[in-house]
Amino acid sequence: MRKNWGLSSGPARQFGDRRWLLPFLASLLVTATLLLAAACGLFSPPYPGGGGDAALFDAVSLADWDDGARSVEAGIRDRLLGGDAAADDENPDDAAVNSDDSDAEPPRIAYLLEGTKGDGLRMHRTLQAIYHPRNQYILHLDLEAPPRERIDLAMYVKGDPMFSQVGNVRVIAKGNLVTYKGPTMVACTLHAVAILLKEGLDWDWFINLSASDYPLMTQDDILHVFSSLPRNLNFIEHFQLSGWKVNIRAKPIVLDPGLYLLKKFDLTMTTERRELPTSFKLYTGSAWIMLTKSFLEYCIWGWDNLPRNLLMYYVNFISSPEGYFQTVICNSNDFRGTAVSHDLHYIAWDYPPKQHPLILSMKDFNKMVKSGAPFARKFPKDDKVLDKIDRELLHRLEGRFTPGAWCDGSSEGGADPCLSRGEDSVFEPGPGAERLRGLMKKVLSWDYRNGSCSSLAYDQTKRDWYVPKSKG
């Protein structure tokens, strides 16, 4: 029996079938015609001078496109820096402190309020103490807080009539795991900034606070004083990384398990050490900041690669929240001159300062007030000193907002005047404004700011610059 080796299941086709020959000859003729036309220059480009100029045309087109891309990049850069501020190359500090915003709309502040397990009620109190309809608020309970506590916080915000009416308080629904000494705290801060930018909210400065922070003056005091300041100033304590911090923080290679695990663990260290970077200088300072919208847009969008490069570097860094933003701003030609080395907090330290500050109590009250700082930390939960601050500095009753000019209701019979909202761009500054104005006069003076992003050393306990002693 004959076997059929063809791929078709039908009867085998005879080998003598030559119907393929005619299409083959036709395609051969077309190919030969195209080759002859190309050889004779029939399809040469219509540029004078032939193919050489065609290559020149392509190069010019790419150059024009590249210039266009650079002009777009420059446009973004100029917009974020406020136009002419970036052009002042002679002395960027002058551009930072000499602008006049007296006729501008009063500023708006975006707050990030962070807490962990058991901080839900503390966040209620702090939010009421710092609330103002003009501002924006993002609340974040980290992953260690149980879901019930996060839900209770969200329901409190949703159920408050003022929050619902104004719509300026947001709760991050999915908590992030935050390790204080690791990069997860930086990631949480950038997450909050990204939410503010994505939703197109109006704000001029960004402040991060924890549940153990508390204000020492009203929002009317703060907004009134900052209404007369340039909007490009970044309040961020900073000084060059030196001494023991170089060996303890910069040279070890670490990994934060919070980046990939759902349970908090300590940082993991390797036995290897790394060299210090040579393409940028390292700076450190406080993790508590008041940064401008333009600088944080730069950190998120970045017209150059500096913020992203430094973010990757600080993933393997001990206490990266105390170094990332400081290193970005002090290595940026555009923003270096806007840095003011103060975190706007009163913090009590051991001498020399250790990793964590001292716990504040009643004995620190006068020092807090005298500092002129708008905030202080760390406070224990429901301590008596908080009641004293509410009573004597904020004039706030338990369970109510700190009163301000925006509170338009009647206070007769003990009623809460902040149940009714009035004009939020009018302020009633009190003694706190005078204290804050005194602090601003100090930190914006040339003698103080002359150490900014320089080789001068910084005394955290005295909050001042000094010339370090030479090792020789």
Q: Describe the global form.
A: globular
What distance lies between the first and last C-alpha atoms, to the nearest angstrom?
105 Å
Helix coverage percent of residues?
25-40%
**Structural class estimated from helices and strands:** alpha/beta
Strand element count: 16
The fraction of residues assigned to DSSP E strands is 5-15%
Give a quick account of the main beta sheet: strands, pairing sense, barrel closure: 5 strands, mixed
Mean pLDDT: 80
Radius of gyration: 31 Å
Number of domains: 1
**Low-confidence segments:** 1-15, 41-76, 83-100
Report the total helices: 16
Q: Report strand order across the widest sheet.
A: 3-2-1-4-11
In summary, what is this structure?
The protein has 472 residues and is α/β, with parallel strands linked by helices. The protein is 37% helix and 12% strand.
Structural description of this entry:
The chain is α/β, with parallel strands linked by helices and 472 residues long. It has one domain (108-402, 429-466). It is built from 16 helices and 16 strands. It is globular and about 105 Å long.
Q: Which SSEs are present, and which pair or pack?
A:
Blueprint: H1 21-39, H2 51-81, H3 92-97, E1 109-115, H4 120-130, E2 136-141, H5 147-159, H6 161-166, E3 169-171, H7 184-198, E4 205-210, E5 214-215, H8 219-226, E6 234-235, E7 239-240, H9 244-250, E8 252-255, E9 268-273, E10 283-284, E11 290-292, H10 293-301, H11 306-314, H12 324-330, E12 339-340, E13 345-347, H13 365-371, E14 375-377, H14 384-394, H15 431-443, H16 446-449, E15 457-459, E16 464-466
Parallel strand pairs: 1-2, 1-4, 2-3, 6-12, 13-14
Antiparallel strand pairs: 4-11, 5-14, 7-10, 8-9, 15-16
